[in-house]
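User: Second chain of the day. Same drill as before.
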Amino acid sequence: MKNFKVAKPRQGLDFEIAFTAAHRAAVERFSHPAEIELACMRAQYPAIFNPIEDGDLIAGRVRFGLVGWGIQDQTVGTGYYMDQDRLVRFLEDSTGGPRIRQQAASLLTYWKGRSTYNQALRDAPAHLKAVLPHERWKDNPLPASPIIRMAGAYIDFDKLVKLGLPGLRAEVQAHLAAANQTGNDPVFYQCVLGALDLAAECCLYYEAQAIDAAAVAAADGDQARQSDLERMSLALRAAAEQVPRHLWEAIQLCWIYGMLCPLMEFGRMDVYLGDLYAADVDSGHLSEADALRLVQCYFRLIDALDGETDGRVIVGGAGRRNPANADRFCLVAIEACRTVKEVLPQFTLRFEADTPEAVWHSAMRCIGEGRSYPLLYNDTELVPDVMAAFGVGRAMAEQYMPLGCGEIEFDHHSFGSPNGFINTLKVLELAIRGGHDPMALEPLTVPTPPLADCATFEEFLDHFHAQLARFIEALAGYERYLYDFTGARHPYLLISAVYDGCLAKGRGILNGGCEYLHGSLELYGNINVGNSLAAIKDLVFGRGVLTAEELVAAMDANFEGHEAVRRMLLDVPKYGNGIDSVDSIVAAFHDRVCLAIHRQAAPAGLASYLGVVINNSLNTDLGRWVGATPDGRLAGTPMANANGPSSGTDRRGITAMLNSIIKLRHDNNAGMVQNLRFTRETWTAADGTKTQALIRDYFDRGGAQLMITVVGRDDLRKAMIRPTEYQDLIVRIGGFSARFVELRKDIQQEIVDRVSY
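Assistant: Same format as last time:
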């Protein structure tokens, strides 16, 4: 992550020093955040753009610096950022001599107090710090934490393609001319115009490179490469000066513009590229093979960002303005996904009843070949669910967009960065002991009556939810604080230029410009909580075969010397087997915590505030700081991933497991994901008809989403032993995919331990 795949990475810290000088000069000269941002953008671009590489059809390979400007951590950092860990390595390990070490020291001392991240932490209100004292969850047993980032802007790519830079410039100029009448901020508009000019300059910067490279190819007698480079240069000139008329020009404009934002999500690609694709192929301007090559290059550039949990590309589904052309593009996009064997983009297929069979079968082929894509989203179920969860009409709900790991937003209408998490299993651990943490050996929250003092299961449940509510309220407040803090400093000029509401109001996306500002809260540990509550209800309050004191003593000992107690806990029915006694407890907990989150929207001043269950590898990372739990889980071991069963506890087969999953509502949250792993032998049995029928049945019965990995029966274990032989083995972690052999061993083991069908 953040390695940015380029053939010739920059050496040294010259860019970082130049950017820092530009920032220093800008804050001394200007007081308006837009003027400071534009000056820093000019220092960053085109300086961080890398040369065109062999095989590229689209220009714009990027390598962000160790300091610079951005919007979210998955690319580089939020606002003005510093990669402190890597800069420290220059001090500790650099072979570049005293000059490099002096530069690193200078950068560290300048940015330590000036980076947006550190400023946001420093200036957080005291009442929020009292509940959420820090964000160092990797090294500490935190029940909840803020996440300082602004993840997931989905700009209006369709508008960008239809207007081009000239059309956008004209729109901004009209707003600027009317600023005296509207009372809007003229400096904001002037700086947006400057940023649009910079986008055009970057296109022309690469045009000159492409022309020079074409001349080299001609001298080498490489006519095919010469032709590609000449066409690239024409596309770059067109992107700078006119409305895109062809697919090549549109992709080139979208990529350069996206990198200047900078973005990690690339939207409904079939909508904004489908018409030009169909027109170019039908007219003979492009062959289908050349169109595929362009989309493949687009996908490789997305993968080169090395953004891991982001890089979404979405096709299909309801609410498209051009379904016939969009469906044609879907097929070429799925083929690009199948043939570009990289981790990104996170290729996503939204589907509904009238999705063409050709699209569905192409998707099944891609999944079956082990790509872990496309991710499948059922619009028949999800559109009404999104309407209910967000309180919006159908037209808006049809523009839902899963970003990153699966959080829901609305295409260019909303912003809902997941800026906090709560480890519900950790909170349960604290609630059992009245607020005391058995790992840190200190209180981590306010005291409530412990399990041993509760007369009924319902009484304990109320105390547990009171603890959850305390953290949820603080996290909602932190979400709003981070929006206000960031918006006051960062207008994000090019994002705001193509986000609904911003130009009309003359304000940046996070400074009152965004039409629909909402928030989302990541939830981890829910399934283990449900299984644990089922065990407490049955063994302690139901049959009374175990006292609360005996349970706590066994957990404090990590069940050593208490094997019989653990056996009892493990024997209580577990979620994932279609057993209603436990599934109902999981579902009731899910509903209650989602409602508690939803209720914090109005107090926090957000359009909505919703939970998301989209787990990534944090189910492993956060599990390290949770002791043994009442579901029989051992201390420090991974928690269940997303809505899937805890590893190894689903023992009644795939139908029973899916029966459990569909009991969890999708209409009270901002995204849930379901992982499913098939062996290649099962997937291909009877030409795949049985597995595909199972998947369709799941969706017909209300299933909303699936992420499917298909692997050979023993491939994962073999890959742990002989990693060099399995470099192309890609697996779904939770909300993202990764090369299995590049994962940490503990995450590999957690994936191996999941059930394959």
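Residues 14-141 form one domain.

User: Great, on to the next one.
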